[in-house]
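Practice problem 4.
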């Protein structure tokens, strides 16, 4: 029983969202403005919080070749320094336990930050898909309006031709 209520709620919520999108499209048609301009004003991403901006930057850097090459360089440097240079008393001897701790901490912090950025990207994709839907809806409505105008024009044209042929025969 509870699942049915939740499904009904979800469907009605989705129906309300579609209705609001249709209203926005109709308003754009009435105003004779470009819907894309209106959508850009509505869905501006300037309101991202500091944490969201940081997570995007960390995800961008963490998924770049700069990070991979820099991190590999750091690992090679760490191993060389602790194996060959500080042979008498290395800071982190061969099993490199401290290096493993550093790597674990980086992974433990970087993974949730990247997941936050992916969630934001998913939300952006959802908004972009909604915008695309609304633009396609407006285009479809415009095409229907043009089709109706062409049909009316064709009827008028046929009527004029019929009258002209009738007048010729008289």
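Answer key:
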């Amino acid at each position: 029983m509870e699942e049915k209520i939740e499904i009904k709620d979800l469907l009605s919520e989705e129906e309300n969202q579609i209705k609001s999108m249709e209203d926005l499209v109709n308003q754009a048609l009435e105003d004779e403005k470009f819907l894309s301009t209106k959508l850009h004003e509505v869905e501006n991403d300037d309101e991202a919080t500091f944490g969201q901006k940081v997570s995007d930057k960390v995800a961008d850097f963490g998924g770049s070749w700069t990070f991979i090459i820099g991190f590999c360089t750091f690992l090679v440097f760490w191993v060389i320094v602790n194996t060959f240079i500080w042979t008498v008393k290395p800071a982190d001897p061969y099993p490199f336990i401290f290096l493993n701790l550093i790597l674990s901490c980086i992974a433990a912090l970087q993974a949730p930050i990247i997941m936050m950025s992916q969630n934001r990207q998913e939300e952006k994709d959802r908004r972009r898909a909604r915008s695309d839907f609304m633009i396609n809806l407006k285009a479809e409505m415009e095409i229907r309006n043009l089709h109706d105008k062409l049909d009316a024009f064709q009827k008028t044209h046929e009527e004029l031709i019929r009258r002209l042929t009738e007048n010729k025969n008289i």
